[in-house]
Amino acid sequence: MEEYVVLVNPEDEVLGLMEKQQAHINGLLHRAFSVFLFNDKGEMLLQKRASEKYHSPNQWTNAVCSHPRYGESYLEGAKRRVKEELGIETDLSEKFNFIYKADVGGGLWEHELDYVFTGTYNEDFKLNQNEVEEVRYTSLQDLDQEIADHPERFTEWFKIILEEYKHNF
Questions:
Q1: Which CATH number characterizes residue 129's domain?
Q2: Predicted pLDDT of residue 136
Q3: 65 is catalytic
Q4: What predicted TM-score, i.e. pTM, was given to this entire model?
């Protein structure tokens, strides 16, 4: 099934729809969301992207990142993908939004108007193996060191969004 992203201008006005991979080839601005989940110890959940993903496979990233469907709010999309990828439901709070553009390799670009949500979760996961290889929690301090030592292990957008998150909080 083809997936489409919602193309927008910098003011989040809808310009149209485009097949997801084509939007990433063209580097066109589209709607996206990112979810940061934390446990009660303040550790951040990371997911390792499945090896079958068409870009950035086997790289670590935030709990969930994806695109809302046409007619779906950013929050509705975030909750949907948390359920589809991690097999869980949890409350999410919108924290901020910003625009970024990142070269993700293979001639593909993430150019997104990204809404960032946070939540807390301490239970078990039911991972969708087509999306997620594994998950783990880590402290922000350990994460910063790991990214400094091995930046290639992490998605380009996660490194950008994490810096924006730390700048805002």
A1: 3.90.79.10
A2: 98
A3: yes
A4: 0.96
